[in-house]
Specification:
This protein has 150 residues and is mainly α. The protein contains 7 helices and no strands. It has a domain of 44 residues: Orthogonal Bundle (Arc Repressor Mutant, subunit A). 53% of the residues lie in helices and 0% in strands. The radius of gyration is 15 Å and the shape is elongated. Keywords: Signal.
Length: 150
């Protein structure tokens, strides 16, 4: 059995270097994020953009992570509320809830990344996507497996 390797750890390291730069650096945008060039969340009431500076910072950090890696919703909340980022869990939840990410596409990107690094059976790749490290839902992993080329 192959070890479970969290791609989120690699993405987190890359994102730590780029947090705060967002798309201003011209970094590669994840296909799930390409529909929006502006990382600002869409609110129904434009008079209140962010509840606080901390919410804005968590949102921007989450945006940066998604620009440079593939994250499940739960893994992204975990990263933002981790010892490294230290956003309160409710702030991390709020930020991730407002990001315009397609987590089916994120799962597909993670699967493709794993297959670029190593050879996986379908069962092992599915297990990797739904592992504690990646935390994609079974529906997202099913989507990824169904949309892999080849």
């Amino acid at each position: 059995m192959k070890p479970i390797i969290p791609t989120t750890a690699l993405a987190a390291a890359a994102a730590l270097v780029t947090v705060g730069f967002g798309t201003a650096c011209g970094g590669p945008a994840s296909p799930s994020m390409q529909a929006r060039d502006d990382p600002s969340p869409v609110f129904n009431n434009d008079t209140t953009r962010y509840p606080s500076r901390q919410h804005e910072n968590a949102y921007e950090a989450g945006w940066s992570y998604l620009q440079y890696g593939s994250f499940s919703r739960d893994a992204l909340v975990g990263q933002l509320s981790s010892e490294a980022e230290q956003f309160p869990p409710d702030v991390a939840e709020w930020a991730v809830a407002h990001l315009p990410a397609d987590y089916n596409v994120e799962a597909l990107e993670a699967a493709e990344s794993y297959l670029e690094m190593s050879s996986f059976s379908d069962a092992a790749l599915y297990d990797q996507l739904t592992s504690e490290a990646e935390q994609f839902t079974s529906e997202q992993a099913d989507y990824a497996m169904a949309h892999l080329s080849g």
